[in-house]
Amino acid sequence: MIPEKSVALITGGSRGIGRAICVRLARMGATVGINYVSNLTAAEETLRLVQEAGGQAFLAPFNVVDASAVQEQIKNIVDTHGKIDILVNNAGITRDGLMARMKEDDWDSVLDTNLKGAFLCSKAVMRSMMKQRWGRIINVTSVVGCMGNSGQVNYGAAKAGLIGLSKSMARELASRGITVNCIAPGYITTDMTDSLGEDVQVALKEQIPLGVLGTPEDVAAAAAFLASNDSAYITGQTLHVNGGMYMGH
Length: 249
Known about the structure:
The protein is of the alpha/beta class.
């Protein structure tokens, strides 16, 4: 259960994991803000799926890296809907490559979107949550942030940074009734994994004790729990959704 008439904002909500979280939270009764940068067609498809599931949603186009746009658009959402109860920082990009050949721009763009974007969005929603003394901030990190991955030093650093950001935010916001947690997905079936060859997919599954890739809905189920009243006594934690491929402390 989530509070009645909850308002949720999901960054990177136009496809994949973000889309599944939008649909799941809308089914729980939240009015869902679908954030996206440029892919209007995909965002409208998420909107259609939410409405098809009997939920309510609105489009929230802005780039999480643009501090003034983040502040302006989140203020607009609060002005229109009265509040933001749940923030899911899911927006993320990859610019993979071995560190020896990685361009500085590829480092900066991944750190900006995946880490700084979560900082900017969280900072912008905090006042609304603090005022009502209730809030849920959920940061989507990755198994790569916990165990590392060759060719992803930028992505791994950003995702590990999200875990440290979340723990520190959790300590700062706990007295105001706001919890901050992470979800760390493993290998999930998305457009990215669909493009991998069959041999690569078989090799990936061999690393996973459950023997299958996860689905966006598996991650959305974890988000639904962390957004709900059932998780009221959980903060500063990382929930691993990875089929057992990494078993952290």
